[in-house]
Amino acid sequence: MWKVVRSLWPLLVLGLLVNTAYSVMWPLTTIYLHNNLNLSLVISGLILAVYSGFNVLGGYLGGLLTDRFSVKWVGLGLLGGLVSDAIIGFFWNGRLAYPLVLVVFGLLTGGMLTLITALAAQLSQGSGRIFNVLYIFINLGLVVGTASIGILFHHSLQPIFFLLVLCYGGAMGLWVKYADRLKSPARAANTGKPVTRTRSKRLSLSVVQISLLLLSLTLMWLTYAQWMSNVSVYIQNQGLSIRLYSHLWVYNGILLIIVQSLMTKISRVKELPAQIVLGLGAIAGSFLLLSSVSGVVALFAAMPLLTLGEAIYVPGVPALINAYTVGNEGKYQGLVNAFSSLGKAVGPVFGGLVIGTSQAFSWLFLLCAAVNGLIVVTLMVGVVPNLKKAREPY
Fold first, then answer.
1. Phi then psi for 187, rounded to 5 degrees?
2. Which pLDDT score is estimated for 220?
């Protein structure tokens, strides 16, 4: 783990800064749209759907641009756009301006996060360890971002957008100085020479298997998005404060860092299928718990299950796809980000419709548990049995 940190720290810190900005924005979107701008949950969900739709587009375009053009200039363009968008949001964040700022934020963030994961894939030489270490830093950003909400947000978004300007400005400075260093392929630990990714142990995933893995991302994030949107309303409906919601995500981020630190030591390519299935099962368990028990204790008991599932499933899918394909890392990681963003786009609308129809959060949570269970069965039948064992490259 520390060898990866020493060699790739600029990429890791970049991931931390970009995700800090992302994590200080998304928990507030539903709350700000619904409570501060007085929009209904369905309208708020539709705005979030448009935002996430552009996030899907940004993720896909980011992958294509990373493969075809200079990564340094693509990154500069995306970060420059994010700085400009944050400055505009600082001054204009009303009913009309905020959704527009949010949509641009989604487009550019999707592209930037894809660029980061595509670079990780190019430098990984087929290993899943880099994804685990990158995910630790991304979740450090989650901790910092969500912890900042309770301090900075008091009915005004100006302090939030100021933090975004600082994060993106720092990320741009880092990128200008170190982007060229990240173009080189990862070096072998002993020889210092580039590692060659041999085709003989790759290309084991069929189009159908890749499609099932990408679909699993969409459906999992569709359910996970309930925690990112409608659970905040669920908490307030129970008479609990928004500060508790912020604390839950800080708790989530700390647990993620602990679990991911362990995963960097034990994660291997041959175990990725089991890791993915176990993660989905844990996420399903968190929703089952929420559907049957309410209150603060239930929330803090369900969060570790969600965290465990997220920590082992989310980095597992891109690592598995990267391990069983060769070349076009931007394309594949762009698809990973795009399908993930699609689930996040549909999730809030889906949740709002289920709540509006059933008038009960418990039905939404049960349905989310069932969806994750269905994904497990599908992957167990359609993907896991046909995978050949791949060796760790280093």
1. -95, 145
2. 94
